[in-house]
Write a structure and sequence with these properties.
InterPro entries: DUF6584. The chain crosses the membrane at residues 142-167. Keywords: Membrane, Transmembrane, Transmembrane helix. It holds the Pfam family DUF6584. The protein is mainly alpha-helical. It folds into two domains: 3-135, Serine Threonine Protein Phosphatase 5, Tetratricopeptide repeat (Alpha Horseshoe); 136-168. It is built from eight helices and no strands. The protein has helices spanning 3-15, 19-32, 37-50, 53-59, 68-77, 81-88, 100-117, 139-167. Helix 1 (3-15) runs antiparallel to helix 2 (19-32), helix 3 runs antiparallel to helix 4 and helix 4 packs across helix 5 (68-77).
């Protein structure tokens, strides 16, 4: 479906209160046209209707007049440069961006990701399978491991108790 027709459907969806459908259509358009800043701006507006500042900030991240609170919410949700690169869903070189601000913002995120990973990355090879937060180490990883051990021990205790009761 042509871009103009899909945007007309988005407008009709919003007028009829079908915000989830409008969001879905706009997400599809941004996926098909990742360098179109106008589509990203429209998607940010829809997320504002949802009251989701992090997603509004995500899609308005390349706008010079973006809301600083939304930008901060986006950066807090997507803490690492690699996660931000994936979340921005940009494809192609930064030079494809329509504004200087967007080109600079994209270059900053890509450069930060390259430095964090210790190797060059670009928008078409965004890292997706690399540990971007230390590989799950730390307190969260330790608690998850301890929880697994407790679950296995509880299962074994029930199993052994059942065997003892069976032969008793």
């Amino acid at each position: 479906m042509p871009l103009r027709d899909t945007l007309a459907r988005v407008d009709a969806d919003l007028a009829a209160g079908r915000v989830p459908m409008a969001r879905q259509r706009l997400r599809g358009l941004v996926s098909s046209h990742p360098t179109d800043l106008t589509l990203r701006r429209r998607l940010a507006e829809v997320y504002r209707l949802y009251g989701d500042p992090a997603e509004a900030g995500r899609w308005a991240y390349l706008e010079q007049d973006g809301d600083p609170a939304e930008t901060a919410a986006f950066e807090a949700r997507y803490r690492t440069p690699a996660r931000r690169m994936r979340a921005l869903a940009w494809r192609g070189p930064e030079s494809a961006a329509a504004t200087g601000f967007a080109r600079e913002r994209l270059a900053e995120v890509r450069t930060a990701c390259s430095e964090a990973l210790g190797r060059p990355v670009d928008w078409d090879t965004v890292p997706s399978h690399e540990p971007v937060d230390g590989g799950g180490s730390g307190l969260g990883g330790a608690l998850a491991g301890a929880g697994c051990v407790v679950a296995v021990l509880a299962f074994l205790a029930v199993w052994v108790n059942g065997l003892v009761a069976l032969f008793d």
